[in-house]
Structures are given as structure tokens and as C-alpha cells.
Amino acid sequence: MERMTEDQYLTTRLDEQLKWYDGKSGWNQKRFRMTQLVQIIAAALIPFVSGLGGLLTTVPEQYILQTVGILGMAIAIATAVGSLFKFQENWVQYRSTAEQLRHERFIFLTGVEPYNGHNAFALLVQRIEGLIAKENAVWAKAAQEKIEKKADLKTDLKVDPKVDPKVDPKVDSKSASASAEDTPQ
């Protein structure tokens, strides 16, 4: 396998990584702002729509209540989606990594310290690959935590048929309540 030249590394590795982190940062920023916008607009509309009930006698009250309920659901869903997908955290993390990569590229190209010695290119590669490896480690940790949370959730959702007679019809409610009382809390 042939060694990469400085130009090859800059264009095929560093520039491609910069493009990827810039793109992912922008993508997450748009989604974060969209979920925030939904929350703000829906929250602002709730008191407005609620106040319409007394002003508009031609609109049935149930429509006002349903609209307020839908707006509340929109807030809850936007909040949950933002929290689940971590748009803000990803936006900031990807932007930070992109800016670090860009910074390293510029100081390398200008030949300032630490890139003013004879091993400047090797140092650039080490530092860039270190940043990328660090980002990959952060991602792997987050992915592992997500897997563990799913496993915990599945464990929490399991219902003991001895405690809940609705799960197992053979268990009557008297024996279920007795076994529930016997179980240490």
C-alpha cells in the first residue's frame, strides 16, 4: 500500500471529515430549532386559544378544549423528540469537532507551531486522527448507554403475573394481593 501524500490526506481525509461534521452539525441544528419552534408556538397559542372560548360564542367549547389538548400534545411530542434524538447536544458536539479540525488544518497550512518542524505532516495526522478517535469514542459510549437504557426499560416493563392477575387469568385477585404483600419492597 502506497503512503498518502500531504495533499491526498488533506483532500481525502481531512476535508471529507470536515464536510461530514459540518453537514451533521447543520442537520442537527435545524432539527433542534424546529422542535424548539414547535414548543414555543404551541405554548404561546394555548392561552390565546383558551381565551377565545369567551369571545367566540359560535365555536363550541369542545373544539377549544380539543385544540388546547392538541397543542399540549405537540409540546410534549416536540420535547420528547428533541430529548430522544439529542439534536442540541449533537449539533454542539459536531460543530465543536468541525471547528477543531478546521483549526488544525489552518495552523498546519500556515506552518505555525506546532506545525513548523520537520515532522509537521506526521503531527497533523496524529492530531487529526486523535480528534476523530475521540469523537468516535463519545459516539460509542452514547450508543452503549442507549442500548443499556433499552434493556433497563424492557426489564422495567415486564409484569409479574403473581402480582397482576390481569396478565394471568389463572391467578385470582386474592392470591395476587397476598403475594404482592409478601414481596419485600
Describe the structure.
The protein has 185 residues and is an all-alpha fold. It has helices at residues 6-55, 61-85, 87-110, 120-157, 173-182. The longest helix is centred in the first third of the chain and has 50 residues, at 6-55. The N and C termini lie far apart (63 Å).
Summarize the structure.
With 185 residues, the protein is an all-alpha fold.
Primary descriptors:
single chain, elongated, 185 residues, mainly alpha, disordered C terminus, 79% helix
Number of alpha- plus pi-helical segments:
5
β-strand percent reads: under 5%
Rg result: 28 Å
Name the helicity range.
over 70%
Order of helices and strands: HHHHH
Number of strands: 0
Structural class: mainly alpha
User: In one word, what is the shape?
Assistant: elongated
What is the terminal separation in angstroms? 63 Å
**Mean of pLDDT:** 86
Major sheet size, sense and barrel closure: none
Uncertain stretches of 5 or more adjacent residues:
171-185
Task: Please give the structural blueprint.
Blueprint: H1 6-55, H2 61-85, H3 87-110, H4 120-157, H5 173-182
Helix pairs in contact: 1-2, 1-3, 1-4, 3-4
